[in-house]
Every structure is written in C-alpha cells, then in structure tokens.
UniProtKB/TrEMBL annotation:
PANTHER family: ACETYL-COENZYME A SYNTHETASE, ACETYL-COENZYME A SYNTHETASE 1
N6-acetyllysine: residues carrying this PTM: K618
Cofactor(s) recorded in Swiss-Prot or TrEMBL: Mg(2+)
Taxonomic lineage from the root: Bacteria, Pseudomonadati, Planctomycetota, Planctomycetia, Pirellulales
Entry protein name: Acetyl-coenzyme A synthetase
InterPro entries: Ac_CoA_lig (IPR011904), ACAS_N (IPR032387), AMP-bd_C (IPR025110), AMP-bd_C_sf (IPR045851), AMP-binding_CS (IPR020845), AMP-dep_synth/lig_dom (IPR000873), ANL_N_sf (IPR042099)
Binding residues for ATP: G397, E398, G399, D421, T422, W423, W424, Q425, T426, D510, R525, R536
Molecular function, one GO term: ATP binding
Binding site for CoA: R203, R204, G205, K206, T321, N345, S533, R593
Residues spanning the membrane: none
Acetyl-coenzyme A synthetase N-terminal domain mapped to chain residues: 39-93
Occurrences of domain AMP-binding enzyme C-terminal (ranges): 541-618
PTM characteristics: Acetylated. Deacetylation by the SIR2-homolog deacetylase activates the enzyme.
C-alpha cells in the first residue's frame, strides 16, 4: 500500500487501540489539574511563552541564594537556564522543608531485602547528608570533582548523591550490576577522584560482593584516590589502607554542620552513563537548577502528589528513573518515599504487594518488564493483599503492551487508578509525555500527551512533519529546563547525536506516531540500541565484548521479543581457531557478563559460518532480528544453522 505519504519515509502503523479510560470522577474531583481543558490551557500558556512560565515557576519552586537574571540563554544546541542564579539541589531536597517546618515529615521508609527496616525524617536525612558532605571534604573532595557511586539500594545511596550535590561534587552513579571493566571505563571517562561502595548488597538472599568488584576496577582506575565502603552485609573485604575508608568511621568523625554551597544554576550536578549506538557509553550531563526544577515539577504533575501520599518507585538509583523519581523529584517535593533494596520475588512473588499493603502506598511507579513478570507469576500473589490504598499507577522504561496495561489496570489498580505511562529518557532529565492523571483519558499502550513545556514533532526521513498516524522520528522543538547539557568530555558527539539529523530539533532516537486524537505512541528505537528489561544496551558494546574473546571472529547482536524482558539479547557468532561447542557457548555468555554485566548476558548464542552484510559492510541486523525472532518473513529458517537462506537473501539485497 504505497500511498504518497509513505515516500517521505514515514513508518506504517500496525497497532490500533480504541479503548479510552477517562480519569475516574472521584479522582478528577480532587486533582490539581482536574480537567482536559485545564491541561490544555496550561500547555498552551507554556507553549506561547515558555520563558515567562519558567521564570515564575523557577522562582517559586527552588531556593535561590542569588536570583537568576535571565531565564533561558539558547545558543543552539547549548542551553543555559536560570542564568546568573545560585541554588543547591541538596538544599532544595532537604533544607527547604526544614525551613518550612516539615523536618519531622518522613522522607524515606526503607526496607532491606532480608526484612530490616528504617525510617528517616527529612531532619534525619538532612543530618546524614551534612555529615557525609563533610566526610567527602575531609578526603579532599571539592566542588567540580567527580565521584563514582556503586552501591546497593540503601538510604546511604541517596545520602551519597545528596552529599555530593551539597558541596558541588558531580556524582556518577554506576548501577551495582555492572562489571569491574564497566566501572573502570566510567571512572576513567569521568576522571573520578573517589568511589563510594558497600561491602556487598543483598539480591535474592545472596550477598553480591560489590567491594570486590570495585577492587578489581580500581586496578585500572588511576584517578580514583579514595574508596568509601558502607558496611551493609558484614562481609570480609580486602582493605587497602590509605585508599579505603569505612563509611561509619568517616561519619563518626564528621560534623553535622555543613551549609549547602551556593552553586551556579549551570553547575554540573551529575553524569549518568547510558548506551549509545557506538561502543563507548555516553556520559549524559545534567546541571543543577533546570534539572532540579524539571524533576520536581514533573513529579508533581504526573503523580498529582500531595503531602499525605506514600510514594514508591521501584527503580534503582543506578538508572535515570532512580535519579529523578527516587532522589531529586520526590525529595524536592517533600514526598514520603518507600525505598526497597532487593528483588521483587524474594522471599516470594508477593513481596511488592506485601510492601504496598504494609506501607499503604498510594502512588506506585514501576516498569513494564516487572509487570510482565508479575503476570507470569500468577494473580494469587496479588489477591492475597489489600491494595486499596493505591491511587495512581505509573510505568516507565519501555512501551507497555495493551494486555499488560489491562492487567495492571484491573488487578493492581482495581479499575480505579489512572495509569500514567511516562515516556522520557536519561537525556530528557524527567518525564516528557504522560497522562496527567486527573485530566487526560488514557489509551492502553499510549503515553498520551506532552507535558506543559514539551513540544513534540514527528518527522519523516525527508525532513517533513508527519501527519496523523504516520510514524516517524520523534523530536522536541523547544529547549526545556531538564534537558541534558552535553555528553561528558565530548562536545561534538552531543551535537552530532541529538542535533544534526533534524534541523533545530532535539532528536530523541525513538520512532513514534501521533494519532488523530493527538495521542502519542512510541514505536521503538531508530538506532541499534536494545531495550532489555527497560535497560538500554548497545548492540555494538555487546559485539565488542564478544570479539574481545580469542575464539570469536565476528559477532552481531540483535534483540528478539521476550515475554518478560521485552527484548532478549540474541547473538550470532563466527568462531576462529576452534569448533563451536556447548562449552564455548557457555563460556561466551560468561565472558559478556564479565565484560559488561549480567543484564547484557546473551540469552541465545548461535554459531554461523558467515554474517549477512550489506555491500558497504554493515551487518544486516534487520534480517538477523527476523531469524532470532523465528519470524515467517525468512521462510522456514528459524535457526541460523540454516544459513543457505541467508546466502540467498544476501544475493537479493545485492
Ligand atoms: C526513563 C528511561 C530511554 C528509552 C526511550 C524509549 C524507552 C522509556 C518509555 C519508552 C515507550 C515509554 N522508553 N519510557 N518507550 N514508552 N513509556 O527509561 O530512560 O534508560 O534513557 O531509556 O526507553 O526507547 O528512548 P532510558
């Protein structure tokens, strides 16, 4: 069906979803933004004059040691927000609430995997953060220095982040499942001066040896002078005097007095590494004021947050969701947050529902990959628990298929809770598109509408704007406060990756379409990045890891649909100097695990004599994806061993 519009390079739509769920009347009656008209009015107001809006909201929502003099300085693609102002993210998350008389309010309700619990008020958290900031200073850490964090999900992880922010040190949180190699690469790229870790962390009843992995990484991280170690599990650890320091020793000696440093609005707040389409991970840079404001405001909008809510985001602080919606957004908003250390199926598959019942969680934010696991584990785990406290359910990380959406809606939400399907990225700092729960009717599988201040445009390959229901590249037309400010140490790459393909627009890297009601549907990534359990993995990184093994000649990694993970990693490998074997298959899986981390471990490894390539030498991943998924498109070839079909397809291509 090659109609004229398709020649522009737009993508055909195959998915249709007509169901519409308006905000429940009781919910809308008390929501902050309580009708579609109210949303539209606000969206139009911000779109008409973004600077006027953000000037007002910026002044109101953040604490200013010195007021800013210009709201936005835009020198495409470089944005500066709240120019000339001085603020501090740790002040906005902590001191501001103490100043307003809310020091007693609970900040964190923490639960360790073995069942130990802790409760920290805003005053408690403030005290810990002040002490820790002084501890960092006692080691010589200064404003602008980079500090890596490789920790389990304990309150100390949040303390470490805010302690850095308090003195202007730039944190780089590395998810505690990454390998020593990956840690070293990040330490070196950021030139980190210190790393904060723990002896170990709990995961499904086992103690993961974090310090040991860091020791390995530090052999190759020459800039790191100090390693701070939290005693979480009481594991024996190797100790290097002078370099290694126990968290509790530093804290015991540290003063509670630590005024937050007034920092420039554009002072770097953190770097967070994410996979790109080349082998080297990108250090996404976020700065202080704009990011902080965006995290706070979007949290309030998307969850319709109020003071008596109990909010739980199940992400890990190793990902952007944990940065924006465990630490900076909710704490700036003065929210009471549940934080959980471990696995959702330990000691059994009802753990999450048990937590929701016990803490009377009202706002719950999780990922489609988790929802698919819950569905597989069976409804009986859910039905044992009283989930009537819930009022808003959120999802993030990848698209949620309508079937999983409906299950979430009925089984978890009791058909009464709006679902906020939030589309955003590490780069965007916070949510960009999502229903406002009291204002926007939802459609299962759609992230619905842009938040105020977000102007999405869908662009076809030929650069023209797509019409309704035509898929194309998702771009954003105007700078927003939470946008990334660059890629650490690589000015050109920032411009090239995000600002070169479509003139004047931020290129998100996702394909999307907008339907006739103005609802957005994300269609997947335009590059070769995989999305495994909501985590982005670059095919090239996995391939590079495989090729670093002596037996591998060439490798191609693709995603294939997976019931739980969304996408599973399938790799095609040509061997050298040996014969393919079951043993080698196992060895290669472990090799990738060691090089990158457990989440990149291939699910399938298929040996082949040759990989299909285009004339320019690019691996034809599209074809391999079909084969990996066992799709009909390639006839009866459901395994790569049948590569005669590949050979003929390659001839077709030429
Ligand atoms: C927050 C986060 C970003 C990529 C993004 C897109 C996918 C995230 C989504 C979604 C469809 C949603 N993604 N949320 N796709 N619907 N609600 O996940 O950041 O790790 O940087 O990943 O994830 O492909 O481009 P990040």
């Amino acid at each position: 069906m090659a109609d004229a519009s398709n020649r522009s390079g737009a993508i055909d739509t195959v998915m249709h979803e007509e169901r519409l769920f308006p905000p429940p009347a009781e919910f809308a009656a008390q929501a902050r933004i309580a009708s579609f008209e109210a949303y539209e009015k606000l969206w139009n107001e911000v779109a008409a004059d973004p600077e006027a809006y953000w000037e007002r909201v910026g002044r109101e929502e953040l604490h200013w040691f010195e007021p800013f003099t210009q709201t936005l300085r835009w020198n495409e693609p470089y944005a500066e927000w709240f120019v000339g102002g001085k603020t501090n993210a740790s002040y906005n998350c902590l001191d501001k609430h103490l100043d307003e008389g809310h020091g007693d309010r609970t900040a964190i309700l923490w639960e360790g995997e073995p069942g130990d619990t802790r409760k920290l008020s805003y005053a408690d958290l403030h005290k810990q953060v002040c002490k820790f900031a002084n501890a960092l200073r006692s080691l010589g850490v200064e404003a602008g220095d980079r500090v890596s964090i490789y920790m389990p999900m304990t309150p100390e992880l949040v303390v470490a982040m805010l302690g850095c922010a308090r003195i202007g040190a730039v944190h780089s949180v590395i998810f505690a499942g990454f390998s020593a190699e990956a840690i070293a690469e990040r330490n070196n790229d950021a030139q980190a001066v210190a790393i904060i870790t723990a002896d170990a962390g709990w995961r499904r009843g086992k103690a993961l040896p974090l310090k040991q992995t860091v020791d390995e990484a530090l052999k190759k991280s020459s800039t790191v002078k100090h390693c701070i170690v939290l005693d979480r599990v009481n594991e024996a650890v190797h100790w290097q005097p002078g370099r290694d320091h126990w968290w509790h020793d530093l804290m015991r000696d540290a003063s509670e007095e630590c005024p937050a440093t007034p920092l420039d609005s554009e002072a770097p707040l953190f770097i967070l590494y994410t996979s790109g389409s080349t082998g080297k991970p990108k250090g996404i840079l976020h700065t202080t004021a704009g990011y902080n404001l965006w995290a706070k405001k979007t949290f309030q909008w998307v969850f319709d947050h109020r003071a008596d809510d109990v909010y739980w985001c199940t992400a890990d602080c190793g990902w952007i969701t944990g940065h924006s919606y465990i630490t900076y957004g909710p704490l700036s908003a003065g929210a009471t947050c549940v934080m959980y250390e471990g696995a959702p199926n330990h000691p059994d598959e009802a753990r999450f529902w048990e937590i929701i019942e016990r803490y009377k969680v009202t706002l719950f934010y999780t990922a489609p990959t988790a929802i698919r696991a819950f569905i597989k584990w069976g409804d009986e785990h859910v039905e044992k628990h009283d989930l009537s406290s819930l009022r808003v359910l959120g999802t993030v990380g990848e698209g949620i298929n309508p079937q999983a959406w409906m299950w979430y809606h009925t089984k978890i939400g009791g058909e009464r809770c709006p679902i906020v399907d939030t589309w955003w990225q590490t780069e965007t700092g916070g949510v960009m598109m999502s229903p406002l729960p009291g204002a926007i009717a939802t459609k299962p599988g759609s992230c619905t509408k842009p938040l105020p201040g977000v102007i999405p445009k869908i662009i076809a390959e030929d650069g023209t704007e797509c019409g309704p229901d035509q898929g194309g590249m998702l771009t954003i037309a105007h700078p927003w406060p939470g946008m990334l400010r660059g890629i650490w140490g690589d000015k050109e790459r920032y411009q090239e990756v995000y600002w070169s393909k479509v003139k004047g627009m931020y290129l998100a890297g996702d394909n999307a379409r907008c339907d006739r009601d103005g609802y957005y549907w994300i269609m997947g990534r335009i590059d070769d990045v995989l999305n495994v359990s909501g985590h982005r993995l670059s095919t090239i990184e996995i391939e590079s890891a495989l090729v670093s093994h002596p037996a591998v000649a060439e490798a191609a990694a693709v995603g294939r649909p997976h019931e739980l993970k969304g996408e599973a990693v399938a790799v095609f490998v040509t061997v050298k100097g040996c014969e393919p074997s079951e043993e080698l298959r196992k060895e290669l899986k472990l090799h990738v695990r060691k090089e990158i981390g457990a989440l990149a471990q291939p699910d399938d490894i298929r040996f082949t004599n040759t990989l299909p390539k285009t004339r320019s030498g690019k691996i034809m991943r599209r074809l391999l994806r079909d084969i990996a998924a066992g799709r009909e498109a390639v006839g009866d070839t459901t395994t790569l061993e049948d590569y005669s079909v590949l050979a003929s397809l390659r001839q077709d291509e030429e």
